[in-house]
Amino acid sequence: MDSNADRLQKSAALAPNQFVELEGRRLAFRSIGKGTPLVLCTRFRGTMDTWDPAFLDGLVAEGLRVITFDYAGLGLSAGERTYNPAVLAKDTAALIGALGLGRVVLGGRSLGGIVAQVLLATRPDLVSHAVLIGTTPPGPVVKLPEQLFIDTARIPGSSLDKDTILFFEPASAESRAAAERSAKRLSVRQEGRSPEVPGEWAAAQLGDRPRNPPFPADAVLAALKATKVPVLHIGADHDIAFPVENWYALNSQLPTLQLLTYPRAGHAPHHQYPEAAAAYIGTFIRTVRAAA
Q: Which stretches make up the AB hydrolase-1 domain (predicted)?
């Protein structure tokens, strides 16, 4: 029978909040599981409590130590808040160093996927594999985010209807049902939750219309074209925030990139298919090595 400590170690819904001091910034983080460390960078308006527990627990079942954290000044973390990917990448590197993790699997969702790409480009020595979820590649894109995403993401607060539009595929009954199941899992944790990101501040960072490029970073694109680090992008066939078509347009130029695309899904495919996505990530990490 598992002890209480074992249950805390294995369950995202029960993981205790922990803190680390980084040069005047106090970052909140949670760690579950044992094994290869996987550090996850969260989405726009995301906190430690916007990761689906079924997805995190699935990663633990794959033999991974899963670390989530709140960006400085957001959630339970202290410091000056920003969505500048270069600053967030430096904080992520500092967290990896402060926890003594060595080389990690680096994951990122949406904005967090941009952060992960910046860190891969600037500190490749810290990254054994990169796992990107529902994010955009650097540089000009062939398909822009939909105005629907911008307009919906700017609405304060959260609700099932709003999250279904943002993260799932409203045209699919299967996806809508998955949105309800995910929302229930996300609500299980009651104690020690991270406060929501302030809506007005977040809206100001987002702007009011899609931009091309969404992620202007020629140096990061050049690094992706030259990297030997295995890169996996998990996407969906109808991502209104960061269309997966933009990754396929670069597929022949990125030598280590693998693409996994889920059908009838939206901006959070790992919430619609949490166990399947976690299992694929586990297989990717175990079987794919850096290019020679």
A: 37-271
User: 8 φ, ψ to 5°?
Assistant: -65, -40
Alpha-carbon distance values, 186 to 12, 14, 49, 51 (Å): 10, 12, 7, 7
Cα gap 36→105, rounded to integer Å: 8
Whether pLDDT at 84 is above 60: yes
d(Cα 97, Cα 79) in Å, to the nearest integer?
A: 18
What are the tokens at 92? 């992520």
Tens digits of per-residue pLDDT, 229-285? Answer: 999 999 999 999 999 999 999 999 999 999 999 999 999 999 999 999 999 999 999
